[in-house]
Amino acid sequence: MATSAIIQGFRDGLAQGELLIQKCNSCNQLNMYPRYACPHCQSDDLGWQKAAGTGTLMSVTTLRAGGPEGFEHEIPYALGIVRLDEGVQLLGRLVPDADGEWSSYTCDQKVAFTPATDKVYATFERAE
Ligand SMILES: [Zn+2]
Fold it and tell me: Strands, DSSP E only, in 1-108?
């Protein structure tokens, strides 16, 4: 399946070790996930802003079976919903603890983006 043009900028950023947030050049609002038009003002004049990479873990779950197509071989892995300090939320992978599990992650925990240039998704680890 071809990569959608709308998320290519996001993936290009990840490939360079950067977490990018789509930003509307008309109203300066941030959008996550990327869209074809700004949901705030409907402008299609959209660019990218580099995120600080820090945020708060809002939810965490570990997948041990039934991974989505293309990711079955990566099970088990943990997914978290992260609210970035910029205010937008995204789904990301969580770096496992030293024992290979994710039991130390809890909601409301501070997390930080971890560049992983061979991945197409954002990865986070505990920040404290
Ligand atoms: Zn806008």
Answer: 20-24, 30-31, 46-50, 54-63, 77-84, 89-94
Residue 42 structural domain: 5-50
Work out the pLDDT band at 13, boundaries 50, 70, 90.
very high
Number of neighbouring beta carbons within 10 Å of residue 124:
27
What pTM value is reported for the model? 0.89
Which residues surround the ion ligand 1 when the cut-off is CB under 5 Å?
24, 26-27, 38, 40-41, 43
Same domain, 38 and 97: no
Distance 38 CA to ligand 1 centre (A): 5
Q: How far is the CA of 45 from the centre of ligand 1 (A)?
A: 8
From CA 125, how far away is CA 114, in angstroms rounded? 7
Specify the pairing of strand 54-63 against strand 46-50. Answer: unpaired
Residue 122, token pair as written in the block: 């954002």
